[in-house]
Description:
By secondary structure, the chain is of the alpha/beta class. The chain folds into 2 domains: 3-14 and 28-65, no CATH class; 83-352, Purple Acid Phosphatase, chain A, domain 2, CATH 3.60.21. Helices cover 27% and strands 22% of the residues. It has 10 helices and 16 strands. It has helices spanning 28-31, 40-54, 56-67, 87-99, 103-110, 146-157, 179-191, 209-214, 250-254, 273-278, and strands spanning 3-6, 11-13, 114-122, 132-137, 163-166, 196-198, 217-219, 223-229, 232-238, 263-266, 283-286, 295-296, 300-301, 315-319, 322-326, 344-352. It has an 8-stranded mixed β-sheet with strand order 2-1-8-9-10-11-15-14. Strand 5, helix 7 (179-191) and strand 6 form a beta-alpha-beta unit. Helix 2 (40-54) packs across helix 3 and helix 6 (146-157) runs parallel beside helix 7. The longest helix is centred in the N-terminal third of the chain and has 15 residues, at 40-54. Mean pLDDT is 87; it is low at 1-37. Bound molecules: fe (ii) ion.
Amino acid sequence: MVLVECFATRTPSKYHRHASTNCAGKFFSECYEFQPQNNRANMDNIEQQLATRLGRVHARQRLGIEAERGHHVFGRGLNFFHPENWYSAHALVRYAIQLVGMYERGQRNARNLQVKKNPIHLPHLPKAFHDFKILHLTDLHVDMDERNLNALIQTVADLHYDICVLTGDYRARTFGEIEGAVAGMQRLVLMLKQPVYGILGNHDSVRMLPALESMGVIMLMNEATALEREGARIFLAGVDDPHYFRVDNLEKAAQHIPPDAVSLLLSHTPEIYRLAAHADFDVMLCGHTHGGQICLPGGIPLTLDSKCPRYMGAGKWRYQHMQGYTSVGAGTSIVNVRFNCPPEVTIHHLLQV
Ligand SMILES: [Fe+2]
């Protein structure tokens, strides 16, 4: 059994819940009065509750950027061009693929989930965590196409793992309603073995946070938590989206992690690899790139929508002492097709060298 320690109360919880210092030791679900059917007045209430949960500045930054009119195609984020925000181009890409008769095939490819295994050798891993398995799901975009979600639910149902981590992008669009994504995540989370940890991506609204936490997902919003096994501990941290919202805070996420402990970081995108490596994280798990999603033969991506070296676009990589893994993700964005880049779920296997 994995125990999760609450940093606020310094007490382990067998319920696999997490509490932040902002919540004064309460479980997240106790920090909200979230009702999915709530009206506008209650949404305003959620804004206040997000300030309590995240801190006033983080909540205001996230909500403020979300409220800016439209998501910008050029500028504003870590990289210059944001094709995920260029909605008129999405239809053009779809028509072009339909025109050459590849659309059905691309959609079938999008449901052809692969289960990838990634061994991670760590010299200072506590013996109790040898053989520890982490199911990594990312870029789910659960409201893109119900058939994709059904395939994902079927795939994860048979997997064996100790914890599950979600590295963001649960929603298809980058703006607008959240109900479709929340409903899809509810279906998926019910099929996952607890504990489940999560972070938000550039497609996600912070307004989804109460719903995800109410489902039992332990959201790491520039926070860390301790995983405990037989008295040994390793640390799992997560940051809010660094790609578009740029509200990630590694300093805050790492502040309670002892310098000699094994530490894993969840980040939506690999783009903060330099800062993460020099913050002394041992492992960084991320997604966002989709591995290109529409690739040339041989899996050569046309774009990774990321400001990072190409070798970090998919699979295993290393920067300085830090080991990284960029999952190509389980879902699709912009157009519901994949070519030469099948979707994946990943099982990371921690091994003592
Ligand atoms: Fe993303």
